[in-house]
Amino acid sequence: MPVYSFFIFDRHTECIYSKHWLPPPPDRPLPPSSFGAQQQQQPPVPSSQPTHPPSAAAATSAANDAKLTFGAVFSLRNMVRKLGGDDDAFISYRTASYKLHYYETPANLRFVMLTDTASLSMRNVMHQIYINLWVEYVVKNPLAPVEHKGGAGVRNELFELGLDQFIRGLM
Amino acid sequence: MCMTVFALIIINKAGGLILNRTFHEGGLNQLSTNDYLVLAGTFHGVHAITARLDPLKNQISATPTAPGGIPSRPEPPSGLEVMETENFRLQCFNTLTGTKFLLFTDTTQVNVDVTMRRIYDLYSDYVMKNPFYQTEMPIRCETFDRKLLSYIREINNNR
Prior knowledge:
Chain A has 171 residues and is α+β, with helices and mostly antiparallel strands. Chain A is 37% helix and 18% strand.
């Protein structure tokens, strides 16, 4: 079951970590960091100038996607709690092309995972990520700050490596 | 077959609530009319966002072609279809004209598609064919209400 993206949002609604496992586009072999589709029509220019705008645009679009994801998840979570009572919890939603899974810790740390539509509940997977990776490598890291403003202390080597191995083990 | 249908909400293409019926007490919290209107508007917005969040939107090749060599139009992005929570399940059916049918059922519900299809049939027959119904306005059609209630009651009693 392919996993497409993974996000972590802190209690201040900020996206403190995001990672993508998207397959490379079939038609145009691009480096995985750039999503600039419109640049491909032009012949490649040897200067470094044209490669800069698409990566900056990709970064903004990724940041906007994270914000949109949070907005959708936050609204749905509040809607669910209103309808189902305060003990109810939003688990997942599915569209025709992807499925979004949600897990929230008691400290309002929010994990969001996007997978393909056929995958089963990823709640236990995200719970495992929380206890085995987040607590072990971020919370117990003496160098990581308490609040991860701008993602500080999250993107360390052990966490990145552990997460990548764990997700690739699922696929 | 065990299934319970809790409620049905119909949202028009502008995000306004046009029908709100509860069929099973105790499944969902009862909200005030104002809260239902807010809920409908919020869901309308979230539905639009979920259609845009498709992680594979950059992966689609430029011009897909149908077998005859004719360039085919890609499927329009679909928004939220099913939402699962601990206490209920929400099935959303978006018609081609943008009217949304939200069906709240219990978590073990199966064959919601069939139920949804039947409700859409009833809507087409008794709301859209009602000469006194103004489109996009709140639904006040007695026949529709009666047919809907008897259909849902049949489902809820069969469990």
